[in-house]
């Protein structure tokens, strides 16, 4: 089994945080989003993951030179071969997959790296394909699928009238990577675009018309990392899932000086907490110092200094310094607000 992860978008809606770190490498509860994504996929696949292929953007688009090294390390930690491809131009969802064409053989999962999920289903690898879906309250804002006898019969983009409340979350299984590549190649060879882009939905429709049967994979939680508030909420939910699973995310070497940690929290290595109350639902990256502060429901990265703060729903980047009276902030790497 292979996992293909298109992640060439830098994540402009999450600025200023993505000015220095691509969104898929933003750390949530101690792990990059893309690492949690592939781990979540592995949890529903009873197959060995042989390769993880990442499709990134160019350095000119904002991807640091060490991006490839970080991604290969993520693949290695999951016991898989890592491959990194570059999408030079943003030509659509299908084109992003096409950039990893050398890895498109055998069964594969395609997962766009701006979402996380939790699920208790197991993937049926004998099916022609599967599409991860989530039940939503407002289907008109999403692409949805229609079912008949447990099989997907239609893909509808942002329906104006109700046809289904099962939204496509951007993760797909294909039994044949070769067939997927063949269909994308047909789009490109014949320049079949929508809004000047090669779209995966056209590939899915073509495969369905040829008789492929796609099954739904219903997730129990769908977490968005598109903007600051949803990303903080994703951190909150992830910490809750980790705590329910019995995982302790507080480092053994945290220095507590007249301070309290209210679980669930992630506290990285070499963190110092002085006269502070931290939690619940707070992530603080390694080598950070927090003094005389109360923090709840917040996502704080590495090497941060915070003092005299009362924060909730905050997102603070790496190497930032904060000493101010605001309660909900979003400041990027190397920012000083004092």
From TrEMBL:
InterPro entries: Mannose-1P_guanyltransferase, NTP_transferase_dom, Nucleotide-diphossugar_trans. The keyword Transferase applies. Residues 7-237 form the Nucleotidyl transferase domain. GO terms for molecular function: transferase activity. Keywords: Transferase. CDD domains: NTP_transferase. This is Nucleotidyltransferase. The lineage of its organism: Bacteria, Pseudomonadati, Bacteroidota, Flavobacteriia, Flavobacteriales.
């Amino acid at each position: 089994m292979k996992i293909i992860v298109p992640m060439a978008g830098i994540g402009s809606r999450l600025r200023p945080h993505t000015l220095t770190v691509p969104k898929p490498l933003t750390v949530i509860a101690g792990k990059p989003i893309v690492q949690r994504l592939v781990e979540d996929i592995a949890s529903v696949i009873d197959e060995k993951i042989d390769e993880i292929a990442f499709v990134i953007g160019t350095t000119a688009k904002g991807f640091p030179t060490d991006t490839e090294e970080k991604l290969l390390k993520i693949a290695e930690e999951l016991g898989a071969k890592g491959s990194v491809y570059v999408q030079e131009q943003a030509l659509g969802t299908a084109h992003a997959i096409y950039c990893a064409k050398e890895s498109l053989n055998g069964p594969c999962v395609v997962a766009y790296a701006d979402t996380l999920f939790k699920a208790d289903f197991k993937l049926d690898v004998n099916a022609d394909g599967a599409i991860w879906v989530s039940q939503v309250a407002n289907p008109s804002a999403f692409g949805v699928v229609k079912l008949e006898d447990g099989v997907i019969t239609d893909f509808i983009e942002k329906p104006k009238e109700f046809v289904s409340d099962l939204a496509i979350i951007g993760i797909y299984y294909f039994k044949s990577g070769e067939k997927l590549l063949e269909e994308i190649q047909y789009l490109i060879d014949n320049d079949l675009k929508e809004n000047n882009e090669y779209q995966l939905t056209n590939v899915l429709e073509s495969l369905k018309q040829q008789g492929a049967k796609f099954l739904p994979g219903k997730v129990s939680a769908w977490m968005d990392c598109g903007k600051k508030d949803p990303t903080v909420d994703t951190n909150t939910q992830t910490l809750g899932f980790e705590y329910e699973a019995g995982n302790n995310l507080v480092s053994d070497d945290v220095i507590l000086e007249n301070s309290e940690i209210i679980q669930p929290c992630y506290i990285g290595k070499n963190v110092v907490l002085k006269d502070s109350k931290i939690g619940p639902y707070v992530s603080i990256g390694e080598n950070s110092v927090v003094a005389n502060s109360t923090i709840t429901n917040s996502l704080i990265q590495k090497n941060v200094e915070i003092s005299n703060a009362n924060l909730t729903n905050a997102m603070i980047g790496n190497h930032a310094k904060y000493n101010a009276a605001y309660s909900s902030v979003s400041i990027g790497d190397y920012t000083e607000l004092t």
